[in-house]
Amino acid sequence: MLEAYTERWALVTGASSGIGAEFARVLAGNGMHLVLTARREDRLEELAEELRQQHMVQTLIVPADLCDPGAATALIERIDAEQITLELLVNNAGFGYVGDIDGTDVEAMLSMVQLNIGVLTELTYRVLSKMLERGHGAIINVASVAGMQPVAYMPVYSASKAFVLHFSEALWAEARDRGVTVMALCPGTTETEFFDVAGVPGWLKKQRAQTARQVVNEALDGLEKRRGCRVTGFWNYLRSLAPRIATRKMVVTQTMKYFRPRSTEAGDSP
């Protein structure tokens, strides 16, 4: 897998846990050197040491809160200063939130838009321009099956992932004949701390959840096939078909049944 990327460099954002950390492990296992960024420096250091010890690859950690003004620009400048040429970008950093309208933290929603859309867009364009000049490279933008339909109680998150999906597929169409692949990755429920932080109901987190390794393996399979979008998991694929066979009203009404905040303890059945 990914022989063309061996001994090349990849940048993984949101690399301290979950899908991001698993991308780092799998890519290192395929001989790629890694630039790792996330807020939690201690976790980045632990992961970088693990990758160096197990796979003998080079690592560069750049602890940063990418929501901070200028942070994404500074990240690219640091990579350039190290004379690192990126062959792969994994735009994984992002967060979500589940809750009803009353009590919505507006500042948190604006931060979500900045990270899920603004930072991803900036990093994509800054890295993509250099890949197009060279005539090779790849970008994986982590979207979600939630981006394929409006999701009640997750309006900002689902809308942000719809942007990632459309943005990535449009760039895929533009860049594919120039040697560069841009792919939207659309996982569903995954066994990571993301869903705890987002406040997803405990019973829902257990519904046919994939492991982070499964998601990453399917993502890289899609990348090798130069897909513009990869939905991971059979059940997620079926969910992705809902907007094609049902009205938008039916789809969003159905999401209310799944994501409505519950008073039951985490892990209880609905």
Q: Provide the residue-averaged pLDDT.
A: 88
CATH class: Alpha Beta
CATH superfamily grouping: NAD(P)-binding Rossmann-like Domain
- Round the Cα radius of gyration to an integer and report it: 18 Å
Low-confidence stretches: 263-270
CATH architecture: 3-Layer(aba) Sandwich
Instruction: Kindly name the structural category.
Output: alpha/beta
Number of strands: 7
Distance separating the two termini? 41 Å
The biggest sheet, with number of strands, parallel, antiparallel or mixed sense and barrel status, is: 7 strands, parallel
Tally of discrete structural domains: 1
Structural summary, described in words:
The protein is of the alpha/beta class and 270 residues long. The chain has 11 helices and 7 strands. Strand 4 (86-91), helix 4 (106-134) and strand 5 form a beta-alpha-beta unit. The longest helix has 29 residues, at 106-134. It is globular, with a radius of gyration of 18 Å. The termini are far apart. The model is unreliable at 263-270 (pLDDT under 50).
